[in-house]
Amino acid sequence: MPELPEVEVTRLSFADRIAGAQIVSVQLGKPLRWALGCEANRLVGRRVVRVTRRGKYLLVQLDDGVLLLHLGMSGSLQFAPLLPPRGVHDHFELGTSLGSLRLHDPRRFGAVVFATSLDDPRAVKLLGRLGVEPLEEGFDPLSFHRALQLRRSSIKPVLMAGDIVVGVGNIYASEALFMAGIRPTTRADRLSKPRVARLHAAIVAVLQRAVALGGSTLRDFSSAEGQSGYFQLDAMVYGREGLPCRVCEAPIKSMRQGQRSTYFCPQCQKA
Questions:
Q1: How confident is the model at residue 229 (pLDDT cuts 50, 70, 90)?
Q2: 111-115: strand order across its sheet
Q3: N or C: which end of the chain has fewer CB within 10 A?
């Protein structure tokens, strides 16, 4: 599933190239997770102002309204002056004066939703409960610690919930906890301020590194330019069960938390 780094990599790969483009056509395929929310031809003639991101949503901000794009579990975007004919899994295409933006989504858990503004109830429903952005100034160690003090659950599921801080998905939660030396099963409210400060720094470092490496390509993720990510090759614990820890050489272990695989080093993450 594409997480924050993959979504940010996707944004960076086409945001500058589509800015200023005028929409000339909209083509819809099979229904996605949610309906578009307007007649497709209502978008024709509008201009793309900028592309931003909130959590795992790409916000294609128009001169009148905004498109909220979510890649779901298997989605990817392509943007190019000329794309090949649409395939069976290409379910949304925005033709513009600068090129076509196409959503490819075999499992159809992705979505493209139109809202009149970010205050529109449809946008608020999707974005209103998201936590702070980990790569922006609003994410600070003291506020992070205060929020964690209210949670009695294990720290890894708390990180992945997305209501305290967004974008720390399965891969990046495992990696950040390893970097901070925190066992994934440690209760969130039992982390001291110094340990939360280390975790805060680790989350920022891991996500920045993931963006720099183009995200993680475990199956079929690619940027809007068709480039794969390489963070998974740099991972310290994720996907390395049974292999020696890169720090202490103890075998990496895995377990299930919230129906997701968690990877950790039993020596480097004792508590």
A1: very low
A2: 48-54, 57-62, 66-70, 111-115
A3: C
Using CA atoms, how far apart are residues 33 and 142, in angstroms rounded to an integer? Answer: 37
Return d(Cα 237, Cα 218) in angstroms, integer: 15
User: Residue 53: what pLDDT?
Assistant: 97
What value does the CA radius of gyration of the chain take, rounded to a whole number of Å?
20
DSSP strand pairing (57-62 vs 76-80): unpaired
pLDDT above 80: residue 219: no
* Band of residue 218 on the pLDDT scale cut at 50, 70, 90: very low
The answer to whether the predicted template modeling score (pTM) of the entire model surpasses 0.85 is yes
Give the H/E segment covering residue 142: helix 141-148
CA–CA dist 64, 150 (Å, integer):
40
Cβ pair 109, 84 in contact under 8 A: no
DSSP assignment string, 243-255: SBPTTT-PBPEEE
What pLDDT does 3 receive? 85
- Within a 10 A sphere around the Cβ of 225, how many other Cβ atoms? 16
pLDDT at position 259 is 87
* Closest to 266 (Cα-Cα) out of 255, 256, 257, 258: 255
What is the residue-averaged pLDDT of the chain? 92
Q: Do 4 and 162 touch, CB atoms closer than 8 A?
A: no
Mind telling me the catalytic residues? 2-3, 56, 260
Residues 6+ apart with CB under 8 A from 148: 155, 158, 164, 188, 189, 191, 196
Phi, psi of 75 (to 5 degrees): -80, 155
**Chain position carrying tokens 């994934």:** 184
